[in-house]
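Quick one before lunch.
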Amino acid sequence: MKITVMKNAHEIGKSVGKLFVDAINAKPDITLGLATGASPIPTYKYIYREYQKGKVSLKDVKTYNLDEYVNLPKQDKNSYYSFMHTELFDHTDIKEKNVHFLNGNARDSARECKKYDEMLEKAQVDIQLLGVGRNGHIGFNEPSICFSKGAFKVNLTQSTINANSKYFDENPMPTQALTMGVGSIMKAKKIVLIATGIEKADAVTAMVNGDVTPVCPASILQFHHDVEVYLDEAAASLL
Ligand code: GLP
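Model of the GLP complex:
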């Protein structure tokens, strides 16, 4: 793992944003694996600002998002579909047909997951962007007794519900999600992970220095040959 410690989330957004813009310019039909949450927002802002300046085009870029809540309407402001449109897609020339999500409202979730796995297998993600949960989750792969190969329906842990429920005001937060499996995440050619804030420090230490164990799903990244981790000083403080 290549670890870079930077001053703050804004600086990380500039560096990781530039990494993505350079990668898109080098391969305009690149396939990206994308993440939601607070961590990637400065990166997305950097990318769409470069688009607005005419420095990059996303018209041939293909994206696959990591996860989606179960039984939350696609148009709900808290769906990850809405998040990606608000934080990135709507500010760029990306084509709707090129953006892919797990459908959390699919009647047969096992079938939906299988379909997504097959699409991912064909697409081959060039760069996967990740955040990490306070409990070490990646995507919505929560601490478990084994690593999941493919996509599946997960029951969210209390730690994740506590961290994410601040976004849900009137309606209760969904307690289940569909997520890309750890096996699929590991197939990306390159992985870039962002973590900021003291509340991520324990997960970051376990991910970088701990045993590789499904108890900390992010620890599997130690086995990937091309991982770049961007941390602020607080998230790196226990390393
Ligand atoms: C969320 C998402 C993850 C994200 C993580 C951290 O629940 N499912 O993909 O990386 O938790 O979120 P944040 O960046 O807001 O701390």
